[in-house]
Design brief:
about 325 residues; binds magnesium ion; Rossmann fold; binds threonylcarbamoyladenylate; alpha/beta; four-stranded parallel beta sheet; 10 helices; DHBP synthase; nine-stranded mixed beta sheet
Length: about 325
């Protein structure tokens, strides 16, 4: 069965209600969606992605009422953040209710949940109910930001990939949890730490691997392209060293060209980190298709979304 890219929302809803897995658009990255109530479809997501069953999925809903049905506690800070950021790319880890099947949460007592900010996806959730969806990439690969990327990863196996255009944010949601009343950031993402702190004050970032990690997606070697990737400020030196190699380059804002480079891309000529985040995976997908020997990527300034992008680049290059 070839995976079909389509804009047919009704067809996507029917397929999900019949227990299929469908490629779904979100404002962050594309997902592999299934109704949270269809455990066969949930199992199939893990199989498609070759993802360990111990790594839980995010649940997407379209209303706070749905979130409250699927969780048993909603701390004050969670409410404040939900009011400010939902619908949007902030995922909260909260105590789960019995309604959420254990396969989704890898038998954890918590569920990661968010209200996404994508009109097509929200309509789909209204038709189907809550949808569990991990990013639509095979385990450890870069997340897809277009329907075409999803089809490239899964040319067969999906009855439909719902085309909702290019993802506006371009990197995954930020994941937070609550320790007592303290906000912990488990995964840096498309909402910056600074933005969260502007609402609830100081937060703690715990996204490094340190033995007992809380968010399994935080393992290093994740988000990796096939092409060997080097993140460096010394691009010229590497170009010189790899003189006889086929090289691709991604720069932050400078678009002056290097000689002897097969393909060079600039993330944001005006130096805007939001624009850079929207482009980073898309550009890595472009370079990854060119059968290069190396891709060289310039690190971002380490603040705001630059910090989230640098986090992904670090994981993309860990060997
Ligand atoms: O932007 C996004 O978050 C995208 C779109 C599709 O919503 N989804 C996404 O899902 O990135 P995924 O499965 O690729 O990453 C979800 C991360 C994983 O690292 C997983 O371990 C973590 O969320 N996670 C899920 N449930 C959790 C829980 N109960 N406690 C801690 N971490 C959890
Ligand atoms: Mg993922």
């Amino acid at each position: 069965m070839n995976s079909l890219i389509s804009k047919d929302l009704e067809a996507a809803a029917q397929l999900l209600l019949n227990g299929n897995v469908v490629g779904v658009p979100t404002e962050t990255v594309y997902g592999l969606g299934a109704s949270i109530y269809n455990t066969t479809a949930i199992d199939y997501i893990f199989e498609l992605k070759k993802r360990p069953k111990s790594n839980p999925l995010i649940v997407h809903t379209s209303s706070i009422e749905q979130v409250q049905k699927l969780t048993t506690a909603f701390p004050d800070k969670a409410k404040q953040l939900a009011n400010y950021f939902w619908p949007g790319s902030l995922t909260m880890v909260l105590p789960k209710s019995a309604t959420v099947p254990n396969q989704i949460t890898a038998n954890k007592s918590t569920v990661a949940i968010r209200i996404p900010n994508h009109p097509v996806f929200l309509k789909l959730i209204d038709l189907v109910g809550p949808i569990a969806a991990p990013s639509a990439n095979p385990y450890e690969r870069i997340s897809p930001t277009t329907a075409k990327h999803v089809a490239n990863y899964f040319p067969t196996g999906l009855p439909l990939i719902l085309d909702g255009g290019s993802c506006e944010k371009g990197i995954e949601s930020t994941i937070i949890g609550f320790d007592d009343h303290e906000v912990i950031v488990y995964r840096l993402g498309s909402i910056s730490v600074e933005e969260i702190e502007s609402i609830v004050g100081k937060v703690t970032v715990k996204n490094e691997v340190n033995g007992t990690y809380t968010s399994p997606g935080m393992v290093l070697k994740h988000y990796a392209p096939i092409t060997k990737t080097i993140v460096t400020n010394s691009i010229e030196e590497y170009i010189d060293e790899f003189r006889n190699k086929k090289i691709g380059v991604i720069r932050f804002k400078d678009d002056s060209t290097f000689p002897n480079v097969a393909k060079q891309l600039t993330l944001s000529k005006k130096g805007d980190l939001t624009e850079a985040a929207a482009n980073i995976y898309a550009f890595m997908h472009i370079l990854d298709q060119l059968k290069l020997d190396f891709m060289l990527i310039e690190p971002m300034p380490n603040n705001s979304l630059g910090r989230s992008i640098n986090d992904r680049l670090k994981r993309a290059t860990h060997l």
